[in-house]
Amino acid sequence: MVHLSSAPGEKFKGRKIGGSHPILPYEVSPVKTIPESFKGDVPHYSTNFNLFKKNKNVNPHEENLAETVAIYKDENSLKKLRNASKLAAEMLYEAKKIVTQFDSMKDQDLTTDAIDSAIHEKILERGGYPSPLNYNGFPKSICTSVNEIACHGIPNLRPLQFGDLISIDVSVYLDGFHGDSCASFIVGADAPNYGEIISHNDELINQIERMNRLIEATKEARKNAIDVCIAGNTISAIGHAVQEVANAYEFRPMKNVYGHGVGRHLHMLPRIKHFKNKDDVILEEGMALTIEPVLVEGHHAHSLWSDSWTNSTVDGGFACQFEHTVLIKEYGPAEILTKLQE
Question: Which of 310, 27, 307, 25 is CA-nearest to residue 157?
Fold first, then answer.
């Protein structure tokens, strides 16, 4: 099913630009569970899969969007928001190490399911709940989107390949608040034999060059968008900042992926477009927002898989996402709550 979210009457007629090994649906392991011994807080959707029955015609980012603007000014709420966001960032860093240090010549196969299991356990050990689990029926604890998969990829048993581009979205619920983060990495990028593996493979070298350029652009788009997250600015400034970077690199923002308010609920108001728009909501002190652009090499249209979650590019072009949770301050730039450790 192809969706042209910004141009309903448009038909995709572009050329295919993907690689020779497209990402296809793969076996998914059984749904994760939370042990009865877990003593931490859990969100209201954690125990009932039918509570938020997935609607195939609704964007998961919009379905059940809490009709409350995410604004926090009291110290207790801000402390909890910062703690949840910090934990999300730390868990994303753990996922990064697993992915980038993978040695394809020595290690056993690495799957997104294995990454999900590892992060699931680490979150529970820290007293948190993995926010995606059971949200609208999502069966796993993180989202893993590989190559042309743009967002909401469900971890599965497909072995990752050296040189795959993977976006990992980690959200954590801790002490009544959610923190949300995402970053993109190249599988094996920090492996000891990285240079040896790519040295005589021109196709792989070209692929990684394309990925690195997309990563650079998406990180820049997120940074420039956060730079305009200042009290008094209109929310459209965020989309304009992303669009300018995308245009400069000749990439496009995927238009069905929105930022949002976050905190007591995973998805709250306001909704944030990462492309040029005329939304006139004014940014206010205390707003907690996610800035999470997805940039793609080719057409901005997306294809929704039959699992009702996985969004892929329509032309096979690579997709990349970076996300931070930020807090709008009374004066000056926003506070970034999910800075990834380096």
Answer: 27
3-state helix, strand, coil in the chain (%, to 5): 25, 20, 55
Q: What is the pLDDT of residues 4-31, one digit of tens each?
A: 333 333 344 455 665 556 899 999 999 9
State whether residue 267 is helix, strand or coil.
coil
Query: Do 311 and 150 meet the contact criterion of CB atoms below 8 Å apart?
Result: yes
Q: How is residue 34 written in tokens?
A: 């939370």
The reported pLDDT for the residue numbered 64 is 55
Cis? peptide before 192, omega within 30° of 0:
no
223 class by beta-carbon count within 10 Å (0-12 exposed, 13-18 middle, 19+ buried): middle
Q: Please check the confidence at residue 342 and state whether its pLDDT lies above 60.
A: no
Q: Which residues are annotated as a binding site?
A: 152, 169, 180, 260, 267, 292, 323
Query: CA 102: distance to chain centroid?
Result: 21
- Measure the CA–CA gap between 259 and 69, rounded to whole angstroms: 13
- Residue 136 makes CB contacts below 8 A (sequence gap 6+) with 45, 52, 53, 54, 60, 63, 64
Binding site membership for a divalent metal cation: which residues? Answer: 169, 180, 260, 292, 323
Of all residues in the chain, the percent with pLDDT exceeding 90 is 79
- Binding residues for substrate, as ranges, are 152, 267
The burial of 175, by beta-carbon neighbours within 10 Å (0-12 exposed, 13-18 middle, 19 or more buried), is given as middle
Residues 88-114 have a mean pLDDT of 92
Phi-psi region of 136 (alpha: psi -120 to 50; beta: other; left: phi over 0): left
- Please report the domains of the chain, with CATH numbers, ordered by start residue: 70-336 (3.90.230.10)
Sequential DSSP letters for 278-305: ---PBP-TTBEEEE--EEESS-S-EEE-
Mean pLDDT rounded to a whole number for the chain: 89
Residue 208: count of CB within 10 angstroms of its CB: 19
**Confidence grade of residue 285 (pLDDT, cut at 50, 70, 90):** very high
